[in-house]
Design brief:
Helix content is about 55%, strand content about 0%. The protein has about 170 residues and is mainly alpha-helical. The chain has one domain (about 40-165): Four Helix Bundle (Hemerythrin (Met), subunit A) (Up-down Bundle), CATH 1.20.120. Helix 1 runs parallel beside helix 5 (about 140-165) and helix 3 packs parallel to helix 4 (about 100-120). The longest helix is centred in the last third of the chain and has 27 residues, at about 140-165. The radius of gyration is 16 Å and the shape is globular. The mean pLDDT is about 95.
Length: about 170
């Protein structure tokens, strides 16, 4: 995923293409916010003592892709990639051993699985897994939620990136 692939969906796209297009746009935006930074820069906390970093954010969104498109939608029983029972927010607790290459690879891998899991479903199809409310989610709801998740976190990524090297932009 590179910035060349970052394009807005057509204003007259059909609903599915619109939802998938906006989700891909926000995925590409996050990749763009991380482009050109070193592992050390990607581990820089936004405002110490906060542990919020771009690397942690990519790991967090890998967990979200996995959680919504594999565990909830497809009903797969999977452990978290980075979290544990003792450290449920493990994606944000980085060490020097944590790298962009690993996080990016994991994140992109989860995106590809998400695409495969959604390709065979319609927007009104319901998830195998249930929410806290005991009911399934439509694929439409999951797409909308993931667009919201990325859009919100891309706002955070804007601020973190500007703090690291002054880069700004959409």
């Amino acid at each position: 995923m590179t910035t060349e692939e970052r394009s807005r969906p057509a204003a007259d796209a059909a609903e599915r293409q619109m939802l998938e297009g906006w989700l891909d746009y926000h995925r590409a935006t996050l990749a763009m916010k991380c482009e050109g930074l070193t592992d050390a820069q990607l581990r820089e906390a936004s405002v110490p003592p906060s542990e919020f970093t771009l690397l942690g954010l990519v790991r967090h969104l890998a967990e979200n892709e996995r959680g919504w498109f594999r565990e909830v939608l497809a009903g797969e029983e999977l452990p978290p990639v980075y979290g544990t029972d003792e450290d449920p927010d493990g994606e944000f607790h980085l060490t020097e051993a944590d790298t962009w290459d690993e996080a990016r690879s994991t994140w992109l891998g989860e995106i590809e699985i998400a695409r495969a899991n959604t390709a065979k479903l319609g927007l009104d199809d319901l998830s195998v897994g249930l929410g806290r409310h005991g009911k399934p989610f439509s694929l439409r709801w999951i797409y909308t939620h993931m667009i919201e998740e990325y859009a919100r976190h891309n706002g955070h990524a804007d601020l973190v990136r500007e703090r690291i090297d002054g880069a700004t932009g959409e």
